[in-house]
Amino acid sequence: MNPVNMNTAWPVTLVSKGVTLRPLSNGDASAWREVRQRNAEWLKRWDATAPPGADNRPRTFGSMIRTLRRAARAGTQLPFAVEVDGVFVGQISVNNIVRGSAQFASIGYWIDERFANRGITTRGVALAIDYCFNVAGLHRIEIAIRPENSASLRVVDKLGVEFIGMAPRYLHIDGEWRDHLLFGVTREEVPGGLLGRLDSQQSQK
């Protein structure tokens, strides 16, 4: 696939072995609320929070979707819902897309605890990164992970995304500025794609 402008490459639906990424939409409101409420304690340690002095007004789901759609149209974000066999199970977001000489973005994600440890997030992240490299024309993707988040660390380990450094007090999470480990991958490192790498590893087990 030839790289194209992000604005012409969205919206898109990506599918691999039962895992689907598609644009988050207003129709996800009920499922999103149910999953978030049921997983409140599970997600609390990893959810971004508003630092002191920032706007901390509660947002409706509709306003969140409108904000995400504007960002997607502007080419600065790709807000994916994650589905497994038609069931909403979480989100993967390509954030902070920078063009020009950088061609860079970061990726964040969360998943319903009931679907954790099944390789769903790993496959979803691989789908998103391959799309960023092969269609959106990005060159580099980074993933920031708290050192205590063993589940997320397994994702980058399975995908072979390399550790590139420590970022002290990187993001405001669960009420405090938290240190994060940074992992990164460039297009040249995965000429066959991360899905190809993942499937090859799994076929050898």
List keywords for this structure.
single chain; 205 residues; alpha+beta; Aminopeptidase; eight-stranded mixed beta sheet
In short:
With 205 residues, this protein is an alpha+beta fold. The chain is 31% helix and 31% strand.
Overview of this structure, please?
- By secondary structure, this protein is an alpha+beta fold.
- The chain is 31% helix and 31% strand.
- It has 6 helices and 8 strands.
- It has helices spanning 29-38, 40-44, 61-74, 120-134, 150-159, 194-203; strands at 14-16, 19-23, 78-84, 87-98, 104-111, 140-145, 162-173, 176-186.
- Strands 1-2-3-4-5-6-8-7 form an 8-stranded mixed sheet, with helices on both faces.
- Strand 7 and strand 8 form a beta hairpin.
- Helix 4 (120-134) crosses helix 5 (150-159).
- The longest helix has 15 residues, at 120-134.
- The two termini are 30 Å apart.
CATH homologous superfamily?
Gcn5-related N-acetyltransferase (GNAT)
Which sheet architecture does the biggest sheet show?
A: 8 strands, mixed
* Overall CATH class: Alpha Beta
Number of contiguous helices: 6
Report, as a whole number of angstroms, the end-to-end distance.
30 Å
Task: Count the beta strands.
Answer: 8
Structural class: alpha+beta
Q: What are the secondary-structure elements, in order, as H or E? A: EEHHHEEEHEHEEH
Main sheet: strand order:
1-2-3-4-5-6-8-7
Number of domains: 1
> Roughly what percent helix?
25-40%
